[in-house]
Amino acid sequence: PGAPAAVVEAFRTARTGIDAANQKIDQVVAKLGTGTGAVMPPAEWTATCQAPFDSIVQVAILALDEAIAQGDRDRSAALTNLIVQSVAFAAALAIALFGWIVVRRRFAAPVRALLVAIGRLRERDFATPVPPPAHQDEFGAMAVALENLRQSAATAEQLSAAHEASQRSQLERAGTIDAACESFDSTAKSVIGSLTRSAGALRDTANAMRSIAGRSSEEAAAVSAAAEQATLNVQAVAAAITDFLDGWLARSWGQQSSFG
C-alpha cells in the first residue's frame, strides 16, 4: 500500500511473467518425470527461465528510482521542515527575547527599583526619594506606599532629632543651673562662714569694747572725782588768793591813807 502506480504495474507484470515461467517450468518438469525425453529445447528453457528477470529488474529499477525520488522528496520536505522549524525557532527566540525585554522593563526593573528603595530605607536613608512609578499597577502602588513611608520616616527622624536637640539643650541648661546652684551654694557657704567668723570676731570685739567701756567708766568716774576735787582745790586757792588780795589791798590803801 502506498506504492507508486508504475511500480505496482511493473510488479504485476513481473508477477505475471514469473507465474508464466513457473508454469512452463512445471510442465517441463512434469514431462521429465514421465521419461518421454526432452520436451523443450535448451535455448527455449534458458529463455523461459530468464524471461521474468527483465520485469524483476524493471521492478527493482522502478522501485529504486521511486526510492530516490522519495528520498529527494523526503529531503526536500526535511529541508523545508528544517527551514520552517528554524524560522519558527528564530521567531520563538525573538518572541522570547521580546518577552524577556518586556518582562524586564515591566516587572524586573520596578522590582529592582523597589528592592533598592527598601535597602535605602533599611539603612535609614530617608533623604533619597523613591523613584516615581512608570505604571499605575501593583508595583506603582508599592512605590507610592514606600514614598509615603519614607516621608513619614523622614518627618519622624526630624522630630526625633529636634526632640533630642531640645533634650540636650535642657540638659545643658540644667547643667548650667546645677553649676550655678553649686556655685551659689559654695559662695553662700563661704559668705556664711565669713559672716560666722566675722560675727565671732564682732562678738569678741564687742566683749572687748564692753570691757574697755567698763574700765573707761570707772576711769571716767575717777577722773570726774579728781576733777571735782581739783575744782574744789582751785576754788579754795582762788578764795584764799582773793582773801589775800583783799587783805593786801586793804592794808595797802590803809597805809596810803596814813601817809597822805
From TrEMBL:
Keywords: Membrane, Transmembrane, Transmembrane helix. Pfam families: CDP-OH_P_transf (PF01066), HAMP (PF00672). InterPro entries: CDP-OH_P_trans, CDP-OH_PTrfase_TM_dom, HAMP_dom. PROSITE patterns: HAMP (PS50885). GO terms for biological process: phospholipid biosynthetic process; signal transduction. Coiled coil: none annotated. Residues 105-158 form the HAMP domain. One of its GO terms (molecular function) is phosphotransferase activity, for other substituted phosphate groups. The keyword Cell inner membrane does not apply. This is HAMP domain-containing protein. GO terms for cellular component: membrane. The chain crosses the membrane at residues 82-103.
